[in-house]
Specification:
Glutamine Phosphoribosylpyrophosphate, subunit 1, domain 1, Rossmann fold, seven-stranded antiparallel β-sheet
């Protein structure tokens, strides 16, 4: 599954999903699709390439999707053509397939009248493809989400209802998935047994909502109830909510949700993200106390951690880098010759706060290092005396195969450079990474609750042949493509 050619120095989430079921008798007065629109608006940080909504009035399913941000995809007339009290929505950032409209979700199955939206990735689709091949089912494209839809539909062809079909198809889904579905009568949600990608349940009136993050509930006026448990299938209809535990729960939430992806006002594993990130900063001060004049975050995910470091150190906190809110992650990047100009368009330094200062710069991660190199250089050029770079996670050494857009491992700076070499590369006075134990400790939860594959190469969900893409180990050893066992590489690394 090819990576986007417009990859930046930031990791990017693949998708957001949203669902809403309102009682026909006790609804909010708004069509479900409009509430889905508001929910998707609040989840754009997880996907900005395309957006789509499907709805039902109890008889038929209607849909609209297009490339672009939520604000540009839906006009008033589009929402008016999405009637009904049930709706699901999807924001996409492509890591697999392509970027044309064929891949926009939700996917619809017209024969069985259901819609499907997926956040995550199936790195190993061998079982799925073999199952469909045995039934002589051929698809235009082997997109993992489309394969899942086809498998569910195949069991419905056998006469099973949609719930039993999902249960039957479940063992074929080798990977990571947080799913919202709907037919004309029900809202459905389910999660892989590791729960790598978040999915939560909210209560709105006499109905329910499902969302990738709890921040979406605040937007529509819903109350957060609980998470969809790993391995759980939730069915919402006119009689309320029914739970089916299809697979044994083995919670492994991606730790990067807390480090970077999730909105700071969201709850994950009952932890408010901005408070966790502040604790990252306090842990950084314990590990790396620096004598400096000012603490500066790289906005936005670095802001809570920088605040925590400033509180612990009693060094002044300043928003000395101002972010241009009108440049999004899908912004078309200029040529290499204009890269520095591009950075200044995104982040403008406040000279008065940085000149002649010893600066502590706080960010969440280093991927390729190119952007950070230009940022450090820019701060020095306007007159800073020192720039100490603090990263509130361990070095990112391994690619993600679970729905996050990451470069090849050989393009990850930390995979082939020591921390000293990385410091020289970005040009900082000093460079420090939060320790693995410090990161986990800041969450207040045990390490066993998390997937930490970015840092240690331990993949809790099998990645199949994609293990061949890992060629560098933690000790810097380069592995030949031959002579290693994929399963061992994917599962046997020490935590």
């Amino acid at each position: 599954m090819p990576l986007s050619s417009s990859m930046s120095d930031q990791l990017t989430e693949k998708c957001a999903v949203f669902g809403i079921f309102e009682s026909k008798k006790h609804h909010t007065g708004l069509e479900a699709a409009r509430l889905a629109f508001y929910g998707l608006w609040s989840l754009q940080h997880r996907g900005q390439e395309s957006s789509g909504i499907a709805s039902s009035d109890g008889k038929d399913i209607y849909s609209h999707s297009a490339a672009g941000l939520v604000a540009t995809v839906y006009r008033e007339e589009d929402l008016e053509q999405l009637p009904g009290h049930i709706a699901i929505g999807h924001n996409r950032y492509s890591t697999s397939g392509g970027s044309d409209d064929f891949y926009n979700q939700p996917f619809l199955n017209h024969e069985h009248k259901f819609a499907f939206a997926h956040n995550g990735n199936l790195p190993d689709t061998t079982k799925l493809e073999e199952f469909l091949s045995e039934r002589s089912i051929e698809l235009k494209d082997k997109n993992d989400s489309a394969l899942m839809v086809a498998a569910i539909a195949a069991y419905m062809d056998d006469g099973l209802d949609i719930i039993e079909s999902i249960k039957k198809a479940w063992p074929l889904f080798t990977g990571v998935y947080s799913i919202v579905m709907m037919d004309t009568q029900r809202l459905i949600a389910f999660r892989d047994e590791c729960g790598v990608r978040p999915l939560s349940i909210g209560k709105i009136g006499n109905g329910y909502s499902i969302a990738s993050e709890t921040a979406a509930f605040d937007t529509i006026g819903a109350e957060h109830v609980r998470d969809v448990e790993p391995g759980e299938l939730v069915v919402i209809d006119k009689d309320g909510l029914t739970s089916h535990q299809v697979a044994k729960s083995n919670q492994k939430l991606d730790i990067f949700e807390m480090v970077y992806f999730a909105r700071p006002d969201s709850l994950l594993l009952s932890k408010r993200i901005d408070l966790v990130r502040q604790e990252f900063g306090r842990e950084m001060f314990k590990e790396f106390p620096i004598d400096a004049d000012v603490i500066v975050p790289v906005p936005d995910s670095g802001t809570p951690a920088a605040l925590g470091y400033a509180q612990a150190s009693n060094i002044p906190f300043e928003m000395a880098l101002i972010k241009n809110r009108y440049i999004h992650r899908t912004f078309i990047r200029p040529t290499a010759q204009l890269r520095e100009r591009d950075l200044k368009m995104k982040l403008n330094p406040v000279i008065e706060l940085l000149k002649d200062q010893r600066v502590v710069l706080v960010d969440d991660s280093i991927v390729r290092g190119t952007t950070m190199r230009h940022l450090v250089s820019m701060i020095f050029e306007i007159g800073a005396k020192e720039v100490h770079l603090l990263i509130t996670s361990p070095p990112v050494r391994y690619p993600d195969f679970y729905g996050i857009n990451t470069p090849k491992q050989t393009e990850l700076l930390a995979a082939y450079m020591t921390e000293e070499e990385m410091r020289d590369h970005v040009g900082a006075t000093s460079l420090h990474f939060l320790s693995f134990d410090g990161m986990i400790g800041a969450t207040g939860l045990p390490a066993t609750n998390f997937s930490t594959s970015h840092f240690n190469g331990v993949y809790p969900v099998p990645i199949g042949k994609r293990a061949d893409e890992i060629t560098i180990l933690n000790d810097g050893e380069t592995l030949p493509k031959s002579g290693r066992h994929n399963t061992e590489l994917a599962t046997a690394r020490p935590t």
